[in-house]
Amino acid sequence: xxxxxxxxxxxxxxxxxVVGAGISGIAAAVKLxxxxxxNYIVIEKANEVGGTWRDNTxxxxxxxxxxxxxxxxxxxxxxxxxxxxxxxEILDYLKDVAQKFDLxxxxxxxxxxxxxxxNEKENLWELETSKGHMRAKTVIFTTGPITEPxxxxxxxxxxxxxxxxxxxxxxxxxxxxxxxxxxxxxxxxAIQFVPQIQPLAKELYVFQRTAPxxxxxxxxxxxxxxxxxxxxxxxxxxxxxxxxxQSLNLINLGLRNPGFLEPVNFLGKKLxxxxxxxxxxxxxxxxxxxxGCKRLLFANNYYPALQAENTHLIxxxxxxxxxxxxxxxxxxxHEVDVIIWGTGFEVAHPPIGKKIKNTKGQVLAxxxxxxxxxxxxxxxxxxxxxxxLVLGPNILVYDSFIGIAEAQINYIVDxxxxxxxxxxxxxxxxxEVLKFHNVRVQQHLQTTVFNAxxxxxxxxxxxGRNFAAWPWSLKELKRRLKAFSLDDYEYV
Length: 492
Description:
alpha/beta, FAD/NAD(P)-binding domain, 2 domains, globular
């Protein structure tokens, strides 16, 4: 809908609109409040905060990063029930933070962004939303990389007459007891929910295209006494958080230097000999790539679930549906009542790119169709002035998403502060800075396990270019994000 200039002038002009009230959106609101940057609003498509931790409610859903690190530095929690937090308590934590920092008054719920267009004449963003037109001098897109469930195109899918849903849109009203269930995919979500549904199923068919590395999870119940003790002595939590951070730094060191991982590859395969009794099953679940090339998975109950009498691992992809018959790549056919898609998310390109137009009127997703997106420090994109992306291209490092998002938000908010103090109306990343940064990123990624580990992962696009991973240490990432340098940008 086109609005007249007079109509637009009547619409409130915000200094900043934050799109999304998940982890990054909450952090952005807290940090903006800290610097008394008041003229902003957070818009959220759902009716509650939480992002991916609100949307993913499948059985067994939880974090694969230790709880100690899965909280904001400005609001640590002592309420985790386990070393690795479960989804309900992570969601409760995010709600508590929003309440504690009085963020709800700044969040407009049930408001989805349909389109964001840059107005070059007035140096501002025009946003079309489900609640009408909005305008802002700057925008922070905090919608995250794991928001849109990926549904593969399978021949004959329209002929299936049973129940079907994605793990990120779990149908809790459907009773799985006594059903013949097909699970498609063996990624991070599937290895969590498969052990939960296996005891309910009459028959469980798990389709695995590529065997993942599934390592033991050093989890334990913390209990009320230990939680109270940690709450009484905050220093314990600080020490715990530091120890976890150091252990993840060691993992990151290995991911950057694949040679260091050879002993881990050897030990991991030896461990499979102890975990899997059946020789053929052991062969089928043994990865054929270096550990860390794909996302590391942690579980203690996944392999036992695969070895249950009612579970059948199918080491092939699903290629066709013929009515209620699922057909694997090797031609095997199985009759099922329900299909659960554990096929992950559309992470090849930031999903928000479908809704953003650059200064030339081009939709970002269209530009990225045949190539990977590029950004400076995962935040600033070519021809996208006065706007920042959180958890964008080449920012992922093995650590808590909360830690990465918080570091990036600190950088962006520092930039917004400088823009306001200096009266800057328009700012855009310098092309030469963007190019130099991304050339270095790609050069340094070549020797990491992500590129040299022998696997196809969602980190790599169709051309084999890594658009997701950060090639250096977390310490280096945080150093680069410590302060917003105006020298990297063109501005007026």
